[in-house]
Write a structure and sequence with these properties.
Layout (H helix, E strand, L loop, with lengths): L2 H14 L7 H17 L4 H16 L9 H18 L13 E6 L6 H14 L5 E5 L5 H14 L2 E2 L8 H14 L4 E5 L8 H14 L3 E7 L4 H13 L4 E5 L8 H10 L3 E5 L7 E3 L2 H8 L5 H11 L2 H12 L6 H13 L3 H7 L2 H6 L9 H12 L3 H5 L6 H11 L3 H20 L5 H8 L3
Bound molecules: guanosine-5'-diphosphate.
Guanosine-5'-diphosphate binds next to helix 5.
């Protein structure tokens, strides 16, 4: 899911990368592109509107952090808003009510109700150690009843034998009294779905709901359904008091708009997400993970956090100005850069956190990025005199021996460092406009 949306949003972020400052114009342009991407992903229009407006509000009031580029801040705001959009009020399923806890599943035919009933039963049994009874009230489709019965047998969960000749309401009542009598912890009631919302179906499910008085009424929705999902959510939401959402088929490759719309349309939190056809393909919904996935961020957020707390942007910009003036990148500067990288836990730990397409850009980084290497190089530079740091060319053989002794390393290490330095100086010169780390940091996400 979300592949297309991720691709589009990454394109938007790409266009922000490398910008030091955001103008009203490029903020508007970015928001316009985000809006287009969401609409293309079939996110409901009112949801897109409020989403964009709330990002705009935050951007206008945003205080641009010293160590982050504004582009990064914008990405972070979008990420936070995605989490808020999908995850507002997220909570665990309520199992604390007086047993039997009744879970009623509602949704269109094909949304994945029966499958989800089985998955939920398995999850409750395995993870929560609950004694679960499954019941079907889909008397219009004996095949659906049979499907649930088979699923129950396969999962070793109790099934209330639902006779399709009885009215759905009667079956629901019987299942509840069986759950009470046999001391089940949870009763899951699967209901009939139609291909389209119709009044008869709505009044039947309303009656069933009144009869079993559910603790949770979960709206099951196919995340690939787009606008249909929105209409169904509205219809079920007005017929029943929904308490949560189960988002199915998130493993599909469709646009995934429903995932972003359903929280706002129903006003209820997404509790679970179906991630495949198998009975264990059910996950407790985590908005943050899904938001990161939508932005294709991997672990980049963790990196942004780290950069926020450790990189001194002013210092990086000072270096950029210095290089712009045509001054040489000296060992003092290398020391500052290395010390920053050291604070972030070494280059390799940074690289690990980057998505592959960004790592490729950083190919020009000097070798020896391990934490130990960096520490040693910092120590070597510290045992030089200020003059040596500023004019590395003056470091002759006898000075090298003195520095090596001072920092407790072999002379070959000093040579390696100086070679590294010359390489880095070349890289710095070739990045004619920007400053080394500052530019690299921008490449990371802003
Ligand atoms: P119902 O009519 O709402 O009861 O829907 P079903 O439970 O019969 O599901 C309809 C189809 O969707 C079946 O083929 C299921 O295997 C499939 N399905 C349900 N949930 C998921 C899911 O999370 N991922 C995938 N890939 N398929 C699912």
């Amino acid at each position: 899911m979300f592949d297309k949306l991720t691709e589009r949003l990454q394109g938007v972020m790409e266009s922000l990368r490398g910008r030091g400052r955001l103008t009203d114009e490029n903020i508007s342009d970015t928001l316009r592109q985000v809006r287009m991407a969401l609409l293309e992903a079939d996110v409901a229009l009112p949801v897109v509107k409020t989403f964009i407006e709330s990002i705009r509000g935050k951007v206008v009031g945003m205080e641009i952090e010293k160590s982050l580029t504004p582009g990064q801040s914008l990405v972070r705001i979008i990420h936070e808003e995605l989490i808020a959009l999908m995850g507002a009020g997220v909570r665990p399923i309520n199992l604390r009510a007086q047993p039997p806890v009744v879970i009623l599943l509602a949704g269109l035919q094909g949304a994945g109700k029966t499958t989800s009933a089985g998955k939920l039963a398995k999850w409750l049994k395995d993870t929560e150690k609950k004694k679960v009874l499954l019941a079907s009230t889909d008397v219009y489709r004996p095949a659906a009843i049979l499907q649930l019965e088979r699923l129950a047998a396969q999962l070793d969960v109790a099934f209330y034998p639902s006779d399709p000749k009885k009215p759905a309401l009667t079956l629901a009542r019987e299942a509840l009294s069986e759950a009470r009598q046999s001391l089940f912890d949870v009763l899951i009631v699967d209901t009939a779905g139609r291909l389209h919302v119709d009044d008869e179906m709505m009044s039947e499910i309303r009656e069933i709901s009144a009869a079993v008085n559910p603790t949770e009424t979960l709206f099951v929705v196919d995340s690939m359904a787009g606008q249909d999902a929105v209409n169904a959510a509205r219809a079920f939401g007005s017929a029943l008091t929904l308490t949560g959402v189960v988002l199915t088929k998130t493993d599909g490759d469709a646009r995934g708009g429903a995932a972003l719309s359903v929280r706002q349309i129903t006003g209820q939190p997404i509790l679970f997400m179906g991630t495949g056809e198998k009975t264990d393909a059910l996950e407790v919904f985590q908005a943050e993970r899904v938001a990161s996935r939508i932005l294709g961020m991997g672990d980049v957020l963790a990196l942004v956090e780290k950069v926020t707390t450790t990189v001194d942007r002013e210092q990086a910009e000072k270096l950029a100005r210095k290089l712009k003036k045509g001054k040489d990148f000296d060992l003092e500067d290398l020391h500052d850069q290395l010390a920053q990288v050291e604070r972030m836990g070494g280059l390799s730990s940074l690289m690990d956190k980057l998505p592959a397409h960004l790592t490729a850009r950083a190919g020009a980084m000097p070798q020896g990025g391990g934490e130990k290497d960096i520490k040693r190089q910092v120590a070597i530079i510290r045992s030089m005199t200020p003059g040596e740091r500023r004019y590395p060319k003056n470091i002759d053989a006898s000075r090298k021996r003195r520095i090596a002794a001072g920092s407790g390393v072999h002379v070959s290490e000093i040579n390696k460092l100086l070679k590294n330095y010359l390489q880095m100086q070349k890289v710095m010169k070739s990045m004619s406009k920007g400053g080394g780390l500052a530019k690299m940091m921008r490449a990371f996400g802003g």
